[in-house]
Design brief:
alpha+beta, Aminopeptidase, 5 helices, about 30% helix, about 30% strand
Amino acid sequence: MDNNCNNEKTENACIEVRPAEPADFEEILRLNEESVHFLSPMSRERLEHLDEESELNKVVVEDGRVVAFCLAFREGADYDSVNYLWFAAHYPEFLYVDRVVVDINKQSDGFGSLLYKDVFKHAGETGVPIVTAEIDIAPPNPVSLKFHEKFGFHEVGRQEVAGGTKIVSLQIAEL
């Protein structure tokens, strides 16, 4: 799908999945803030660091506008997420999907699936045996749970995060 226009969901829309560039960071931060209740907050400085450490930092661009992004990390990254660290302690090799964020006005347009297909393609091409992610279960995020089930994810653990205010389901999908 890279660099191609298609008419999948919107008439005459040009949709591109590509690596994020520094010029995209303001939109990435806007999207992150829009869905921050499911994510951790992110400053420009933090995003720049995560971009450097990430295996994948991809955006979906529709008609020249960033409408979704994905950050994913391999084992060994300088990343202090408690969920990433859980996977690092349990799996020697993995691709951790830290966040897939879609503009709230575009959430049913298939952009999250486009990004996940790209993640799985990359994992397969680089020989990574599993893709990992966490999903909020308290408070619940049933849309995310159902979405991840479609990609073959299953639970391998749980943990409390955010000072005990959330419980996440730690999940993997094997390639």
